[in-house]
Design a protein that fits this description.
4 strands, YvlB/LiaX_N, 2 domains, NAD(P)H-nitrite reductase large subunit
Length: about 130
């Protein structure tokens, strides 16, 4: 059981789980003595959420993108084959850790993921809700 708790704590450190969800998992482990499957399938309610990307520029160049988690998960599963079919795309996806993104979705990462404000006042916000 200590291995599972250690894994939960690592996921909190990496930002893959929030403290409340981690506490629930640890409590479930301690109460039931059963293993919790951290590699579970993503629930349908989570798949109905959206990845929202907001870019606000001081110059007024604003971007709002909403992507369904269901679409992102499907694209990530087939996305690793993109570079094989379109070699010119490799420079855009070479540093993308597809497995990490799929794991984040499988573990139902939720809430604010990125919040950046540049020196000139431009802002980038990425949220799953």
């Amino acid at each position: 059981m200590s291995e599972e708790i250690s894994r939960i704590l690592t996921m909190v450190e990496e930002g893959k789980l929030d403290k409340e969800k981690a506490a629930e998992l640890i409590n479930a482990l301690q109460e039931n003595g059963n293993q919790v499957n951290l590699n579970k399938q993503t629930s349908s309610s989570y798949l109905n959420k959206m990845l929202k990307i907001r870019v606000t520029s001081e110059d007024g160049d604003n971007v709002n993108v909403n992507l369904p988690i269901k679409l992102i998960k499907a694209v990530l599963k087939v996305g690793t084959n993109i570079a094989e079919k379109f070699p010119e795309s490799e420079k855009y996806i070479k540093d993308l850790d597809v497995e990490l993104l799929i794991e984040a979705i499988d573990n139902e990462l939720d809430g604010q993921i990125v919040d950046i404000t540049s020196a000139n006042g431009d802002k980038v916000l990425v949220v799953i809700e």
